[in-house]
Amino acid sequence: AQSVAQPEDQVNVAEGNPLTVKCTYSVSGNPYLFWYVQYPNRGLQFLLKYITGDNLVKGSYGFEAEFNKSQTSFHLKKPSALVSDSALYFCAVRDIRGNQFYFGTGTSLTVIP
Amino acid sequence: GAVVSQHPSWVICKSGTSVKIECRSLDFQATTMFWYRQFPKQSLMLMATSNEGSKATYEQGVEKDKFLINHASLTLSTLTVTSAHPEDSSFYICSARRTAGEQYFGPGTRLTVT
Question: How close A66 comes to chain B (CA, Å)?
Fold first, then answer.
C-alpha cells in the first residue's frame, strides 16, 4: 500500500528564514512523490515531483525537495521564506498502476512578517 | 500548460436537492478523471476514478447512487450530488489525466448544503 505522512500539522517560520515541511513515505516499488500547495478555497497547485534521477528536485517559486531513500523522506525546503508562502502544503505519492494520488494530511505553513 | 476548470466554483443548495459539478480539461483530452473530496483542514480523499465512456470506479465507502459520475467525453466529467444533505457540504476537487501522462487538478468547487 502507498501512503505518505506529514508529521507536522502546523509550521511557523519567520520571513527570510529557511523553511522545511516534512514528509515521509511508504511505498511498494519505486516512489513517485509530489508536493502541492493549496491556498484558501483554491485547488492544488503543483510545486515539484520526484520520479527518478537526482535526489534534489527543484520546483516552482524557489521550492526544492530532497529525496532520501534510506530515511524514506521527501522534505520540502526553501532557503528564504516569504509571507506569500503561507498556505497548506500536501505531500503525495502516486500509484503507478492506478495513477491515483494518496495525499498526506497536509501541513499549514505560516510565514511571520 | 494543461488547464482543468470546474464549474461552479461555489454553490449553495437546499437540503434534498441535487447539484451538478462540471470538470473540464480545457486544452487536452483526459482519458481518466478523478474526483476528490476535502473536508475543512483535512486532506483530499479520492472518491472515484472515471474513464471516458465507462462506469466510474468508486472508492470504498463512497455511495455511488448518491455521487453520480459521468465521463461522457474526453474533456468533460460531471459529479452530481443527489438529494444533498448538510453533511455533503465539502470542497470537491477533480483532476484530469492525459493518456499515460501527468494529472492536473482543477480549482475545486465549494458545496454548501443548507
Answer: 21
Per-residue pLDDT of chain B (114 residues; tens, 9 = 90+): 678 999 999 999 999 999 999 999 998 898 899 999 988 777 889 999 998 888 899 999 999 999 999 988 999 999 999 999 999 999 999 999 876 667 889 999 999 999
Nearest Cα residue to A46 out of A107, A111, A91, A104: A91
Burial zone of B9 (CB within 10 Å; 0-12 exposed, 13-18 middle, 19+ buried): middle
Q: Which residue has the cell 502516486?
A: A94
Alpha helices (H) in B14-58, listed in sequence order:
none
For residues A80 and B64, give the distance between their C-alpha atoms in angstroms, rounded to a whole number.
46
CB B69 within 8 A of CB B56: yes
A42 vs B41, B104, B108: nearest CB: B108
User: Within 10 Å of residue B3's Cβ, how many Cβ atoms?
Assistant: 13
Q: How far apart are CA A111 and CA A48, in angstroms?
A: 20
**Could you tell me which of A15, A29, A18, A30 has the C-alpha nearest to residue A76?**
A18
B17 in helix, strand or coil?
Answer: coil
Nearest residue to A106 (alpha-carbon basis) of A1, A3, A5: A5
* 3-class DSSP assignment, residue B88: helix
Looking at the complex, report in whole angstroms how far the Cα of residue A94 sits from the nearest Cα belonging to chain B.
Answer: 10
Preceding omega of B107 cis (within 30 degrees of 0): no
Write phi, then psi, for A92 (nearest 5 degrees): -145, 150
